[in-house]
Specification:
This protein has 266 residues and is an alpha/beta fold. It is built from 10 helices and 9 strands. It binds adenosine-5-diphosphoribose.
Length: 266
Amino acid sequence: MLSNEMEFKNLIKLAKNIIVITGAGVSAESGIPTFRGAPKLRWRNYKPESLANMPAFVKSSSLVWEFYHYRREICLKASPNNAHLALSSFELRCLKENKQCTLITQNVDGLHKRAGSKNIIEIHGSLFETKCMKCHSIEDNFTSPICDGLANRGSPEEDSKLSDIPVEQLPHCDKCHGLLRPNVVWFGESLPEQALEDSIKLLNKCDLCLVVGTSAVVEPVASFPHQVIARGVPVVEFNIEKTPITNNSRYFFQGPSGSILPSLLS
Ligand code: APR
């Protein structure tokens, strides 16, 4: 074993409160495109951020729902990979060793939960929850298509740039019949209050922070590792390439997380 690996394993042995921060890279090996690196999410030449916002939804809820229907389908067809599985086994191991281990994910794909992770904060929401625009109730929803109007829609091809599904054929709330939206945090929106509050408590308490597969450029999560480093607590990063936190991390393990995490966390 390399000395970095031994030292990392020793850090785990000594830690009592571990947080793991994940981003799109952890799901790349499940075939889910990332936002900035390769393979990159492409949909009708729209930039994801130009659709993932409230003004876009107000302008064309049909177009935005087609985009999310496409992403829901990809995620439902995908399976958790070895990185998701290694992280859920790691949580179990921590439990047995009386350590606290919490996963804070920016991913909305639901794969950590499907891999068995329990102690998890989905800080950017979930593709498999809906939120009613009228009564604000949040519900789980794994049905695909989520409504008949979206059947055979959402093709990522360029020639289907326009979207014309009548609003009454989009998903509606069972309780009040308001229009539903995906319960994901859009650009320009605040993170869910409770998720943010819980994350901040964990950042102030943790004694080890692992960061997996995030470009670490989207706030506020991009700042989380820096807050931990500022307390003198070690941050260990796993990524295929360097990021803005690499130089301040205690260790940087380079490679696809599905290949490197299982042995490093075993
Ligand atoms: N293993 C580990 N890391 C990987 C892998 C892999 N197999 N493949 C890609 N990566 C890394 C890339 O090097 C990059 O640093 O994953 C990172 C993916 O970065 P982004 O696409 O920017 O994803 P993320 O950091 O999660 O984005 C944050 O931005 O658009 C928003 O809301 C969206 O939650 C998302 C947020």
